Amino acid sequence: MKTHNRAMMLSAAAFSVVALLAGCGSGGFDAGPQTASGALTSNASKELTVLIASSGDPETQAVTTAVQTWASKNGRKAKVTVANDLNQQLSQGFASGSPADVFYLAPEQLAGYASNGSLLAYGDRIGDRGDYYPSLLQSLTYKGKLYAIPKDVSTLQLVINDTLWKQAGLTNADYPKSWKQLESVARRLTTSEHKGLVFTAEYARVGVFMAQAGGGLVSKDGTKATASSRASIAGLTEARRLLTSGSAAYASDLGAGWGGEALGTGKAAMAIEGNWVAGAFAKDYPALKYDVIPLPAGPAGKGTMQFTNGWGIAADSPDQQGSISLVRYLSSDACVMQFAKAFGIMPGNRKLAAQWKTEYPRLAAFSDGLDYSIGVPTLKGASTVVADFNSQLAQLRTVAPETILDKTQTNLDSLIR
Fold first, then answer.
1. Could you tell me the pTM of the whole model?
2. Which domains does the chain have, with CATH numbers?
């Protein structure tokens, strides 16, 4: 997903993906009742097509192997294609009437595709959907219908370069728990060679401060724009305070593409980033010693952001039954945990949270963040508004937060009316 730079976050796979995925189970979901939408299409002779966006070879191999394992078990044929531009290729497929049967679906794409009838709303046919975090299901729901089951989830937390932390004379007791403490340690960590804190100039990072103040771009149910609320202004003001203090910087200011690169190259001591850092660091900065801790609380308490992708199914698929069967398999507990090992995903299934944290204790804070995270707006057209907001954030040091957020509020209001 573009909002969390998946293209940069390649996982290291030091084992055979084929052997790893051989243990994927066929369970995971019970079939729900038939709905008023009518019978599903079925054509077992058809080769099912799966379209994905991949972070690299480990993800491509893992998904391909899982899909082929399902096909072999069911006497079917199936093919995985890695998209160069997922949104463009999905749109072209829908327009031509020959879309992929199953595909990665980002929440920001959902409203547009659902409103024109491109997607199958199969969520009410999935018996175990209640095992997922409600906020993730909401992100994949349009006009009361669940169109996709979450494939994975990511959150943001504070990632620390251990070496630079200790060089500044800091210990675990100095981990910041409030904005004031964050400002203090950022100052202590800042030297002529590196900044204390880094994040990227986008809502998908700066938004954590808005969440910690009790704000965000939209309300939790997505029905009201809250960009210009006092809470949102307070959050963006804190981000500006850090930037203008000289102890924090945007990654681009340091010549880095994202926070993880700034951390790995020693240009920053702390970064606001997501659980994808584990794979990226293993590949690009294997010697880096780092810790992950919860982001400090703001006036409203803890707050972070979440990002998810779902398994979408085309309404025009000639084999909707087979597509749902495949999604059930790919979303089974065993497969999800195998994917976690292969390319570093975090399950959106609450049942798997404890197991995931046991296997990846260093990353536990990311999973814990799901209890207090907010998502990105999923209104039709919201991605354009967020893109404009991101472009304005580049001027945050010199433009008042109220000015930026008032414009964003107006743009969001026009979508909600």
1. 0.89
2. 2-154+307-374 (3.40.190.10), 156-305+377-416 (3.40.190.10)
